[in-house]
Write a structure and sequence with these properties.
The protein has helices at residues 177-185, 190-203, 209-219, and strands at 5-13, 16-20, 22-30, 32-38, 44-49, 54-74, 79-100, 106-116, 119-128, 135-146, 150-159, 164-173. The chain is α/β, with parallel strands linked by helices.
């Protein structure tokens, strides 16, 4: 059984952290920071990126049941990248809110998930207000749906200014047959070929070797 230890808050200042099996409530960021999360059941998390600060979050979770809410607040000339991959076998409600508090900030949300016979509901909500200029919002969601799972994706962008760049892409499908057939043509059986595709898909967006190794061990 996976146990989750609650951590009230993390203050990051020009550092990189690796955290496992914890539930974090708040993150305050100054300077250039990286946060790597493995099997952390994020329930209700608020992230505040201070002026001129940046944060990259590499986050993997193996899910049976989870209701997750992540709120990101970006200040002047700040940068935030979320690289979230997961395997869901049960019920996963994911709600992400990105809010540009000030101007000239950059937020990127990358989600690569495997929904293996489970029920996934993913809401990604981006807010850009009238008097906040020159912000960039980029949302990318890719889900591989297996074993008759159910996936619902709700991308919502609340844009109140013309001086913004905002994009959202969502792809939901199965394992690509051309990739499967290619691996099987090399003598790899179907089960192992599927496993290789899933592993590559999950770690593709994760930019941390230790986290990639832990994900690989779990899938293997």
């Amino acid at each position: 059984m996976k146990h989750s230890i609650e951590v009230d808050s993390i203050i990051l200042n020009n550092e990189e952290l690796f955290i496992e099996n914890k539930n974090i409530k708040s993150i305050e960021v100054s300077g250039k920071c990286i946060l790597n999360l493995f099997n952390c059941n994020i329930i209700d998390l608020e992230i505040n990126i201070q002026d001129n600060a940046s944060l990259i979050v590499n986050y993997f979770n193996n899910i049976n049941e989870l209701n997750s809410r992540i709120v990101v607040k970006a200040n002047n000339k700040s940068s935030f990248i979320l690289n979230h991959s997961f395997i869901n076998k049960g019920k996963y409600n994911l709600n992400i809110y990105t809010d540009f508090i000030k101007e000239e900030a950059n937020i990127v949300v990358n989600i690569n998930g495997i929904n293996n016979g489970g029920k996934l509901n993913a809401d990604v909500n981006g807010y850009v207000h009238t008097d906040k200029l020159n912000n960039v919002l980029d949302e990318n969601m890719r889900i591989i749906n297996l074993n008759n799972g159910l996936v619902m994706s709700n991308p919502n962008m609340y844009i109140s200014t013309s001086k913004v760049i905002a994009n959202h892409n969502t792809t939901i499908g199965g394992v690509r047959l051309d990739e499967l057939f290619y691996l099987m043509s090399k003598g790899i059986d179907k089960k192992e070929a599927t496993n290789l595709i899933i592993k590559g898909f999950i770690i593709k967006i994760i930019d941390n070797k230790k986290l990639q190794n832990k994900i690989t061990d779990l899938i293997n």
